[in-house]
């Protein structure tokens, strides 16, 4: 009843305050499982077993998402698909996402310079109405969006109860800081929409695609098969982790100085961080893990990384183990990279393409890019994705000098079972949806076979037949102060992993609620 009163009141406010609203209201009956057309706004109110639909035109109000997409690796993060899903839940028109150009990474790129915005709008036209900019109020000035933040892990009910009344009153809202602002578990129709957005609607621009495919081709010319390694070993990342990487007093002094910038961080405990698996593997440890898994020194490796702490000295052991060591800077000319080199997001997009097209993708961390690529590679055919079981491996690396190579390699292979990107490695519903999009993956193994005739299937040509992603169908003045939602559906991954319920890597920062904007920007990969 309270929700009905809120909506009735909101409709009255809207009708009385904004004479620019036009259009005929249509009441359309719908079932719980029916697709909701983007041309109609339907607030579905569940009272017992009765579903009521109150419809107004979706063009009458707008949700604008400002993505502070400062992290250079966060190109296809949950924010893109979650903004679309949020608009679908609210049945609002979505303004093309904006990227924060004032953040730590100082990248002036906008959404349309990274993604094909026309394809994005067209592909999702049956799901959500998307526009490039805020409309005007008839002949008057353009609408101004009301800025607000969404609680973390906000589910459908949360959006209806908390965001919708504000949207109806203000007519346009700007949802900022959109990391993890949508619950992990949603109704099936919304989960499938997440897949349509992330795996089909988001497509890089032609210049990025062309250069990315050129890099892939050059790797294939060097070797028929190659491994791509996403290596996060930047000073800021290491300082945040609070781990000891064997650099002695010099390392402690340098990383400690960086760590002191963030007053919200607790005093570091390197031993505990290692035991909990929260330390990114060093380049040498990654190389040893790969050799233990059976990859020989003749394998070609493409390394996608930012600034590596220690530079060439840190990378030397990995190069010694795998001499065929490549990066975009080594296989492309300076002139070829010039259009991208001043923009960290565009350079990251090139790495993303090469990593995604690799025969084996490896990461030394459990950040966003690792999870997103793991989910993407599951969706497109379970291509091998190796994520380190750091919680188990740390003891092996610690005591490596006390064991034979055979014993070390055997233990690595044992501990990495369940961390190799194989089918059904993680039970449906476990882990984050962006790393395990089980709702969209057909259980029929025959239907899940990779289309080997389309190497660029994920970028140039959309192939919606490969997966089951069909169209299934308060006090508003202080909304930014709402506490984050406690999502009971999200599993305690640490406890489950301890019990052996499933093999799941944990993020270095899953449990943290960042108060320092710069810290969140640097670590949210």
From TrEMBL:
Q: Name one GO biological process term.
A: fucose metabolic process
Q: Which InterPro entries match?
A: FucosylTrfase_pln (IPR024709), GDP-Fuc_O-FucTrfase (IPR019378)
Pfam hit, one = O-FucT
Where in the sequence does UniProt note compositional bias of the Acidic residues kind?
A: 483-495, 513-525
Q: Keyword Membrane: yes or no?
A: no
Taxonomic superkingdom: Eukaryota
Q: Which GO terms describe its molecular function?
A: glycosyltransferase activity
Question: Which keywords are on file for this protein?
Answer: Carbohydrate metabolism, Fucose metabolism, Glycosyltransferase, Transferase
Positions of the UniProt region annotated as Disordered: 452-525
Q: Which family does it belong to?
A: Belongs to the glycosyltransferase GT106 family.
PANTHER family of this UniProt entry? O-FUCOSYLTRANSFERASE 16 (PTHR31818:SF1)
Name-wise, this protein is: O-fucosyltransferase family protein
Upper taxonomic classification of the species?
Answer: Eukaryota, Viridiplantae, Streptophyta, Embryophyta, Tracheophyta
